Amino acid sequence: MYITNASRGLPRHRSRHLGERYSRWAARALVAALVISLMWLVLAFHLNGQWMFALLFLVLGASLAVVFTRRSLMSHRYIFPALAGLGVFVIFPLLYTIGISFSNYSSDNLLSEERVRAQFLGQTYQAEGAAYDFTAYREGDGVRLYLEARDAMAEEAGDAAGVARRYASAPLELQDTGERRVALRPAEAAPSGEPLAMREMIAARDALSALRLETPEGIELRMTGLRSFAPLLPRYAENPDGSLSDLRDDTTLTPDHETGFFVTEAGERLTPGWPVAVGLDNYTRIFADPDIRGPFVQIFVWTFVFAGLTVAFTLAVGFVLATLLQWDQLRGKAIYRTLLILPYAVPAFISILIFKGMFNQNHGEINLILENLFGISPSWFTDPALARSMLLIVNTWLGYPYMLLLCMGLIQSIPRDLYEASAVDGGGPLTNLWRITLPLILKPLTPLLIAAFAFNFNNFVLIALLTGGSPDILGASTPAGTTDLLVSYTYRIAFQDAGQQFGLAAAIATLIFLLVVGLSWLNLRLSKVKV
Q: ABC transmembrane type-1 domain: which residues (predicted)?
């Protein structure tokens, strides 16, 4: 006899099959919704000219549909989210950065050529001597605009006596409701109402700026001042060969597809421009331009020195403390161990900001102590050597707990029999240190030291919060400081330079990536991991 389901009266195995069927259909519906969403993103990016992002989501959507619809790929469904995340957040940004490094992408070359051309064609100018003086007269609940043109415009109209050509609008309400078109008609004289005061004109400026006044001759007038309207004429006209004619001074702008700018007849580049491929120019600038090569080489050398000295200092401090904590006669080891590891528990940005206050040249505790004891007040943030020393001191404080934990674990794994045998042979503490402890911990510690070197090689947070790269390197054509690392130097070029040279920053970032890849490969080799 079947055991029936209490709620539906169905056999248990049929209820289970229905549940599995509903689950399969729900999963298929979810996959279909994700695929449709990704295809919508592909279309949106394609319509906006972002073909790289469109290609990314097209590949992602296609792979999602294939993996989750074919039974032969069922085993790949569990690893697909990790691979998708790797592609979207690691591989694609890397390829995108490398692609930018071969272009002149910057704040001056940011838009597409079509948008740059449209921006130039959208520019207008005011014809000389074509302004209308206007006054707004109160009439009922609204106002009536009265315009008149004298002198040059009146003479063009054939009025040698200088009598003004006058126009007036119908009563209207000055409300900031967006662009509005208002028809003008000829007027014999000014309205008899009360004109608006200057403060009222200023208050209604936004509403007046949105008005487009049309004369009976079909001329469109726009507000050009608190007391004037004028016809704004298009400044540029497009020619069949793609160049632009400047209607104001009868010159021609020629598109230069090698530099990504419109160029005047005198050779002047006009911004904005558009991104173009420049090949290896950004990499060539790093090593050929003396204004970039000098700071780059200095920062490159300092980056290696900083990372190397940080690893050496943190290892030395951590190893010495770990050795002392293994001393049998030391009491209260647990308390000392907890206190020495505390810096590792405090978030790094909090510790860095605290040290920044302590090293303050005028009011910091460190300078107050040094001045009272030795009569000196070091310029930690303005002297390059002292600024670099400060970075090493702070980074040693932040990094020694990690080395302490590593050394404690490795020292505890050394068999005690070795030390007992050394004591029998007459070996002392120094002999044990150089003949037993160091040789046995250095080999397993080497890959971890390389990883620590790679981490400090890109230690952006320390530089950004403590010194900001200062003091600056004199004569550099890009933002560069004596305490900058390559990663902070790249950031400053991309986001703090006046030109925001994204292409040059991407080239430096690519070089950093190659260096880190080399360190990772060395780490794997030393760890005896076969790739």
A: 300-523
